[in-house]
């Protein structure tokens, strides 16, 4: 069973500081292009932006930060950019994870790992094992991740374990098999780089997430921009299907709507 409430089944909490932030780190290529640098230089600077955002999340008391590093569609990019991204990911796992571990950060990786080579698979496994018992921020890196893959994978795994569900199953039967089922659903989604789309990120988990889009390109995103996103989130009224009047009269939360 999932530990946290599903926003379409129960009314979850609406914490003033998001417990879970999901980020599409977009705009690296354009950031580099503006500076007459190769696209990959933007990816490199993107790692620094991530470092700053991780630190800011820890300071602010965010519990889960989930970042989109490589989508299941990004294989369509030029081969040299893809291989640069793979080696950057590898370097990041080798260099950064020790630092993250020292800061009590738990690292998780979500996505279809079957397309990564053995070395990268080993590094991902090592990062997760090393940091598994940390209780600070949980940093989840989505790599070769796609929202539709997540749902399909969950259904297939569930049916393997529970062939009887082929006759029918409920949302709560499926949810433990989805990525991040151990975390609350994201409170806040941030996409940098100006595009206003989800690009196949966490389609299931974002059902009631507050969406925030900014033109700031990812390498230029830092603590101040994160605080601006959280300030915007704090102005939102999270109704989860109810009316403003109900919220004002503080209807008791929790009603399980079968
Ligand atoms: C996001 O930046 C990083 C990845 C998708 C890996 P982009 O590389 O998409 O940068 P733009 O959107 O081309 O500027
Ligand atoms: C989304 O960015 C994926 C990541 C940030 C890893 P893209 O730049 O690949 O998204 P689209 O193709 O513009 O939608
Ligand atoms: Mg992009």
UniProtKB/TrEMBL annotation:
Cofactor: Mg(2+)
Protein name as catalogued: Isoprenyl transferase
PROSITE patterns, A to Z: UPP_SYNTHASE (PS01066)
InterPro entries from the UniProt entry: UPP_synth-like, UPP_synth-like_CS, UPP_synth-like_sf
Role description: Catalyzes the condensation of isopentenyl diphosphate (IPP) with allylic pyrophosphates generating different type of terpenoids.
Superkingdom as given in the UniProt entry: Bacteria
Positions contributing to substrate binding: 27-31, 39, 43, 71-73, 75, 77, 191, 197-199
Similarity-based family: Belongs to the UPP synthase family.
Gene Ontology CC: cytosol
Key words of the record: Magnesium, Metal-binding, Transferase
Active site per UniProt: 26, 74 (proton acceptor)
Single GO MF annotation: ditrans,polycis-undecaprenyl-diphosphate synthase [(2E,6E)-farnesyl-diphosphate specific] activity
Enzyme nomenclature, EC number: 2.5.1.-
Binding site for Mg(2+): 26, 210
CDD domains from the UniProt entry: Cis_IPPS
Annotated spans, Disordered: 239-258
Organism of this sequence: Ferrigenium kumadai
GO biological process entries: polyprenol biosynthetic process
Cofactor info, note text: Binds 2 magnesium ions per subunit.
Subunit relationships: Homodimer.
């Amino acid at each position: 069973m999932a530990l946290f409430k599903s926003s379409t089944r129960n009314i979850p909490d609406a914490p003033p500081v998001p417990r879970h932030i999901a980020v599409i780190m977009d705009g690296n290529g354009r950031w580099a292009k503006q500076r007459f640098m190769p696209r990959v230089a933007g990816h490199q600077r993107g790692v620094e932006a991530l470092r700053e955002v991780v630190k800011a999340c820890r300071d602010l008391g965010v519990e889960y930060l989930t970042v989109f590093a490589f989508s299941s569609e990004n294989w369509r990019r030029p081969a040299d950019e893809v291989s640069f991204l793979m080696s950057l990911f590898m370097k990041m796992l080798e260099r950064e994870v020790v630092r993250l571990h020292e800061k009590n950060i738990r690292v998780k990786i979500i996505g279809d790992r079957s397309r990564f080579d053995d070395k990268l698979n080993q590094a991902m496994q090592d990062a997760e094992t090393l940091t598994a018992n940390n209780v600070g921020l949980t940093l989840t890196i989505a790599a070769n991740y796609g929202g539709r893959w997540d749902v399909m994978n969950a259904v297939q795994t569930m049916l393997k374990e529970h062939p009887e569900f082929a006759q029918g199953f409920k949302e709560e039967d499926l949810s433990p098999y989805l990525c991040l089922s151990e975390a609350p659903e994201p409170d806040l989604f941030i996409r940098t780089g100006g595009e206003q789309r989800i690009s196949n990120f966490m389609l299931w988990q974002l059902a009631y997430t507050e969406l925030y889009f900014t033109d700031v390109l990812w390498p230029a995103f830092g603590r101040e921009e994160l605080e601006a996103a959280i300030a915007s989130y704090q102005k939102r009224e999270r109704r989860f299907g109810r009316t403003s009047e109900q919220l004002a009269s503080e209807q008791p939360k929790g009603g399980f709507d079968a």
